[in-house]
Amino acid sequence: MMDRRGFIIKSALFGGALWAAKGNLFAAEAFQKSRYKVAVIDLMILKRQKLGAVKLTHEIGADGLEVDMGGLGDRDTFDNQFFDKEFLKNYKSQLKEYGVQVCSVAMTGFYAQSFAKRPTYKLMLADTLKTCKLLDVDHVFLPLGVQGDLVKNPELRPALVKRLRIAGKMAKKKGITIGIETALDAKGDRELLKEIGSDAIKIYFNFSNPLKEGRDLIQEIEILGAENISMIHCTDEDGVWLENNTRLDMVAVKKKLDELNWSGWLVIERSRDASISPRNVKENFGANTRYVKSIFQ
């Protein structure tokens, strides 16, 4: 029979073990949250360079926000509101109030325009890097887009490589990484990065690219390697929410990223439900954010 003293000692030991287990659990959760952060895109939540983007991001439940450099058209550079001191001050105040972090600055004007041919690309790069510094951001998203598709337009490769080498030098001076999105497969991306030869240029990996081409997503991640991935567009084409997407095994994706010891931002771009209006951003991106967090955090 255990005496009172023995009972107290055993209870204390059990209680200590329980608290230790809880502490380990909390530590593991905190590690996952710091390892993988989830963001949305101001352009896709219909708040490009608007103060309301920050509050909406908070309401959606995301940790961060990818902001766009603004419209381009025939201008020499982007129509960028962040160079307005009053707007910048108010925007940063909103970020602080709602606990939202800007994860990257996007040059989405190059989805439709050619980075290989645009005469003022250096000015546009300089403005983007300056915006990064104003917002305390160290990542840029540069899509090579339709006109920079190296599968359909391989003749553009020399010009693109030359310009991306220059971009890499400009970014490195500022301590910033430029993540490019291409139409190449993982092996092709690795070869392109090797040709560029800049550690300030990496791949901004988008799940939907290999998926829509019928390639093995997990294999593509492994071939590309953690060291070559700057950030991830954790998304697929529109149609169904991520939780209902049968061709995107998010648990397997996390397992592979864990194995590769990758960490960083998972940015939700699309994966909107086709039965819901694209304007209902809270429902679409809220659902996807909750799902991604349930897997990665």
Automatic annotation (TrEMBL):
Superkingdom, taxonomy of origin: Bacteria
GO molecular function: isomerase activity
Pfam families for this protein: AP_endonuc_2
SUPFAM superfamilies per UniProt: Xylose isomerase-like (SSF51658)
UniProtKB keywords: Isomerase
InterPro entries named among the record's database cross-references: IolE/XylAMocC-like, Xyl_isomerase-like_sf, Xyl_isomerase-like_TIM-brl
Keyword Protease: no
Signal peptide span: none
Positions of the Xylose isomerase-like TIM barrel domain: 55-281
Keyword Isomerase (UniProt): yes
Stated name of the protein: Sugar phosphate isomerase/epimerase
